[in-house]
Structures are given as structure tokens and as C-alpha cells.
Amino acid sequence: MDSRYDVELGNAGHKEIPGNPSTATSSTKKLNDRSNGKPLKVLSEEDWKFWIHNGYIVIKNAISRSRAEETASFLWEFDEKDPNDPKTWYAPPRAEMQMKELTGTGMVEVYNHQHLWNNRQEQRVYDAFTDIWGTDKLWATIDRANLNFPQRPGHEQKGFIHWDYDPETKPQNVQGVLALADQTDENMGGFQCIPWLYRNYDTWKKSQPADRDRFQPDISGLEDKIVKVKLEAGDLLIFNSTQPHGIRPNRSGNKVRIAQYISMMPAEPENETLLNWRIHSWKNRVAPEGYAFPGDPRKWEQEKYETAKLSPLGERLLGITPW
Question: Model confidence over 281-312: pLDDT tens digits?
């Protein structure tokens, strides 16, 4: 199947924005406001208050540490790098990234391997997203992973803060990061965000020029408000898509940030184009195509690995079995 058809099957709304094309840019359903009266499955009441106030939440032990380590080992293998040999860490990128701020941040272009689907269909991961959305009928994003290596002299990067969706559109969407190795050292790269700007966006934007970059805010004067979130292997961080966020530079010298991107949104079985693309992506191990998604020119997923086996929950999270 040619790439032109792949784009047509995917979500064309993502061709020029950073967000993941395997789900809608914004859900037709609102995020959970607790009005349905359903009890929370994973989040505590304190967690809920933190989520509403800060726009992100950490779910401890969403998957086991051993599962996280198995996934991390696979990523090293897939990326043709040796965790014990730093000389292998800095090969040039295999494909050009249109979204330039992601260049050199360690994106691993794998999307449908069994290890990734095992983590998506983990019950505690799913239950956490049902708390956030207030519905059990969810689809998982088909997203990639990350190996963020220590910076080398002469190759320093500043890190970045951005939105994947234009906050002016008030997207009903969330995103997520699953830690596959401990990220408790603030210097080793990892997730950063600005909850203050998440809370005060409407006031802040009045001080900004009309032609400001809708996806990358000028954070001058907000540097002290950046939160560097610490995670342990197996922890899941979920954040509201109106939360300005990014990857902080890895200045640790010898530690590698390893993560898988996981999120879920309310299922849209009536969107047959998107549903068909999702099933095609899983079955044929095809990567999403979009502004921030260059894919793997080696086509290792198609040529080296089998289609992932799905649990009954996984089949529903993909969409091949309806809720």
C-alpha cells in the first residue's frame, strides 16, 4: 500500500501540526468533570485535585518495572544502539524531521511492536485514562518511543516548550508518557511543563503579539515556572493537551531517558476512515504520517516483526472489536 493511501487513511488534520495522527485532533466528548457520578478507578481524590489544578498527573506503577525494562531493552535493539557503549548512541538520524525542535531528541520510530501494545493494553494504564475521560469506551493512540541521550560537547540543545495542538482551539485531548527507566535526575532529560501557563493562558495571551507562534510560546520570564517532572520506571504521566510541555535537555553526562508515548481518547467508531487506518496501521505495522512523524526508512517493523497479538481489551483499544 503506497504512502499516499496511508495519508488518506490517516487523520489529515495532523499533516501540518505536531499531534499524533492515530486519533482525532480533539474529542467530541468533554474530559471528565465527575458529573457522571462514577467512582475513580486509579486516581485518588487528591490526585484528582492535582490533575485539575496542574494539568498533569503521575500514575505510579502503571506497568511493572520488569515490563518497563523489557520494553527498554527492545528499544535499544530496535534503534541499533548498545546501552553499555556510548559510541553507538550518536548515529545520525535515519529520516529528516519536519518538526525541527524534535531533531536530536531521540525519537524512536516504532509504533506497533508487541511490547508497545502490551503496555497500551495494561489494565492499570487503561483504567487511569478512563478516570481522566469519564468513559470506558476508549481508543489508544498508536505512538512511538524515546531514547534521549546525554548531550555531547558541541551538540548542545536548549530543550523546548510547545503545544501539539493550538490552545486557541481548546482541544479536548490528553497525552501521556510512560517511563521505561528511572528519570529522577532532573539533568537527564525528560518531561517538563508550565502548569502556571496552563492555568493562566487566557490572561497571558493578552500580553503576547497577535502574530505569536500558536504552537511554541515565548516563555521569557516564565523560566522559574517550568516544572521538571520526576518519574520512576513503570510510572505513567498524563497531561492535558492545553499544557505547554516539552523535552528538557539531557545534561547528565551518562544517563539515558527512555520512554513510550501512550494516550487514549474516546472511541469514534463512526469515523470509518480513521478506524480503517488504525486497523491497517496495527495489522501491517505502518507508522502514522504527519508533521512530527518521519517513520523508519528501514521498515523494520514490517520486515522483522509480526503483527502484535491483542488481548480482548487491546482489540477494543484499537477498534477492531467495538465497545
Answer: 999 999 887 555 667 889 999 999 999 999 99
Helix axes 45-54, 195-204, angle to 10 degrees: 40
Residue 195 has phi, psi (to 5 degrees) of -55, -35
- Cα torsion at 307, 287, 114, 18 (round to 10°)? -150
Q: How many CB atoms lie within 10 A of CB 60?
A: 12
Burial group, residue 208, by CB count within 10 angstroms (0-12, 13-18, 19+): exposed
Query: What was the pLDDT predicted at 106?
Result: 81
Question: Is CATH 2.60.120.330 correct for 3-318?
Answer: yes
Distance CA 91, CA 109 (A): 14
Q: How far is CA 156 from the centre of its chain?
A: 24
How do residues 215-274 score in pLDDT, each as one tens digit? 999 999 999 999 999 999 999 999 999 999 998 889 998 999 999 999 999 999 999 999
Please give the grid coordinates belonging to residue 317. Answer: 483499544
Q: Are 263 and 129 in contact (CB under 8 A)?
A: yes
Nearest to 248 by CA among 105, 99, 100: 105
pLDDT at 231: 98
The answer for residues whose C-beta is within 8 angstroms of residue 90's C-beta and 6 or more apart is: 149, 152, 155
Q: Which three cell numbers stand for residue 21?
A: 495522527
Domain segments of the chain as ranges: 3-318
